[in-house]
From TrEMBL:
Domain of life: Bacteria
Species per Swiss-Prot/TrEMBL record: Neorhodopirellula lusitana
Name assigned to this protein: DinB superfamily protein
Pfam name, any one: DinB_2
Location of the DinB-like domain: 45-166
Amino acid sequence: MKSRRPSESDLTNDYHRQLADRVAGECVIEALQNQLWWICELGGSLSCEQADQVHAPYTWSVRQVFEHCVDAERIFGDRILRIAAGDKTNLPPWDENAYADARFGLGNLGHMISEMGNLRQANILLLQRIKPSLWDQVGTVDSHPITPRGIAWIAAGHLHHHFEIIEKRCEVSPNRMPVKDAMGAS
């Protein structure tokens, strides 16, 4: 199965494996789709005051964390596309602090949530159209071998990691997935 859990050859960086291990399930596309619900629910549960707070020991506001997740989602999609296409360039790491310092996200939090959802949907569509054999295509990021499958699991784990921190910082507990009724419908 192309969207199966990552193997050692999909993720060679220990931190990336830790991110992927945060995500439950066997299908990354399903995990990424389920997170679309969490994006909306978490974003909708935050007040403007909560979004602009910095909670020690962190140095970013919750709004900047959302912005970071948007930036990361965009970069993950680019890496998936490039590696699946056979691009053998050693892709550079990205300086998340430089992106945060640029302060793109000073605008409407709702717009960032929409952008995050749109980027996630675009990445899901990209993953769905990649031929199964290309999920195993090996590229490099910061000299670490990685596959599109590995990057997809990192994307899910990265969002999971940051959203758990936001929930804890803001003391909110939104539904992470649609609630099913007694008949199993959402």
